[in-house]
Amino acid sequence: MSEKTLFTKIIEGEIPADKVYEDDEFCAFRDINPAAPCHVLIVPKKVIPKISDADASDAELLGRLLLAANKVAAQLGLAEEGYRFVINCGENAGQEVMHLHLHILGGRRLSWPPG
Ligand code: 5GP
């Protein structure tokens, strides 16, 4: 059995986090180092290290991830003014935690393109 990821430890309550949503498949909690007034990570409980590791068997999970992220964004009051989803993949994108997660960012005007 491989070492639990940081996010699995958060999902299982071994490491505290400010959880805002949980269902059978996903858990969402506030980022410890927010890049926007509202910055939440939504994480599939299934460990896929990087989005590039996903395969056809994950297609429905990934669809449900986007829909769950929309639900969380609405719950957080972001729906009207808008929000951004980000998935970092690998070194050039600065991915730090090797457990697939989607960033939900909002609460201010976000610059584009990203740096
Ligand atoms: P990545 O760069 O891998 O896409 O994003 C990882 C995110 O996880 C970062 O935004 C970082 O601030 C956040 N993070 C890292 N460690 C913790 C932690 O222990 N708790 C929480 N809530 N967020 C974390």
Describe the structure in your own words.
By secondary structure, the chain is an alpha+beta fold. The protein has a single domain, classed as HIT-like (HIT family, subunit A). It contains two helices and five strands. A hairpin with a 7-residue loop joins strand 2 and strand 3. The longest helix has 17 residues. The structure holds guanosine-5'-monophosphate (5GP). The site of guanosine-5'-monophosphate (5GP) has 14 residues, from strand 2.
Q: Strand-and-helix sequence, N→C?
A: HEEEHEE
Instruction: Spell out the CATH superfamily.
Output: HIT-like
Question: Structural class of the secondary elements?
Answer: alpha+beta
Please indicate the count of domains. Answer: 1
Low-confidence stretches: none
User: What is the terminal separation in angstroms?
Assistant: 38 Å
Task: Look at the structure and give the CATH class.
Answer: Alpha Beta
Q: How would you write the strand order of the largest sheet?
A: 1-2-3-5-4
Radius of gyration, CA atoms, in whole angstroms? 14 Å
Find the CATH topology: HIT family, subunit A
**Main pleated sheet:** 5 strands, antiparallel
The rough form would be described as globular
Estimate percent helicity.
10-25%
Number of strands: 5
Q: Count of DSSP helices? A: 2
- Just name the CATH architecture: 2-Layer Sandwich
Q: Give the ligands present.
A: guanosine-5'-monophosphate
